[in-house]
Structures are given as C-alpha cells and as structure tokens.
Design brief:
By secondary structure, this protein is mostly helical. It has three helices and no strands. It has one domain.
Length: 65
Amino acid sequence: MLAICAVVAGLALAATGGFTDDVGLLIGAAVISSAALAGIVLAFRRRGWQLAARAAQALIAHPGI
C-alpha cells in the first residue's frame, strides 16, 4: 500500500512537471519517488535466513533441555 502511494505521488509530480515544462520538478519527482520506494522496500523486506530460522526454531529449541 505504501509502495503504491509512493509511485502515485511520483507520477503525479512527474505529470505536473511535464505539463508545466519544469525540468527541476521532473528530476525532483524521480529522486523523491525512487528514494521513497527504496526506503519502503528496505524497511519491510524479510531476509531468507530470518524466515528459515523462525521456521526451524520449534524443531531446534525445546524447553527444559
């Protein structure tokens, strides 16, 4: 959901910059939307080893041993 919002905001800024012939706004839209999307992906990604460790935790750790 956050990724969609970042893309829509970037496209809206790019469209506005295109209609007004403002190159600075186009560059700003590209930088801001790319940074927002990268931040969202890095914040919510799951590492493979973390998922495997959580799945194997019940098999490895036993209470009282």
